[in-house]
Amino acid sequence: MSDQAEQKEGQLNIEISEEIADGEYSNLAILTHSHAEFVLDFIKIVPGAPKAKVKSRIIMTPVHAKRLMRALAENIGKYEQTYGEVKDNNNGQPPIPMNFGGPTTQA
């Protein structure tokens, strides 16, 4: 039997390369949107560095953004049931400026 015949109907086989599997660390995400899409920029900020670089950009439809929001909320709920509440106390740090000196985004 072929792999395709053995695969269950509706099942999606997803592959990931080693480079992508290593992942990127991000400690800031900036979200922007237009009427047609959401743009998620994942950034790594290093203390004391004058610049920060976008490490990854994900562009998705509003429907997929809403599905992501629901999946994140569900998984955070499961995490908190196991490990306790995730506290967002910002450790007394001042808020990160959100303009980074660039223009506002529009699509």
Helix content: 25-40%
- Beta-strand percent range: 15-25%
Quickly give the structural class: alpha+beta
Mean pLDDT: 85
How would a textbook summarize the main sheet? 3 strands, antiparallel
Q: How many helices in DSSP terms?
A: 3
Neighbour order of strands in the largest sheet: 1-2-3
Question: What features would you highlight for this structure?
Answer:
107 residues; alpha+beta; 3-stranded antiparallel β-sheet; 3 helices; 3 strands; 28% helix; extended
Question: What secondary-structure arrangement, pairings included, does this model have?
Answer:
Elements: H1 3-6, H2 18-21, E1 28-33, E2 38-44, E3 53-60, H3 62-83
Antiparallel strand pairs: 1-2, 2-3
Provide an overview of this structure.
- This protein is an alpha+beta fold and 107 residues long.
- The protein has a domain at 23-88.
- 28% of the residues lie in helices and 20% in strands.
- It is extended, with a radius of gyration of 18 Å.
- 1% of the residues are buried.
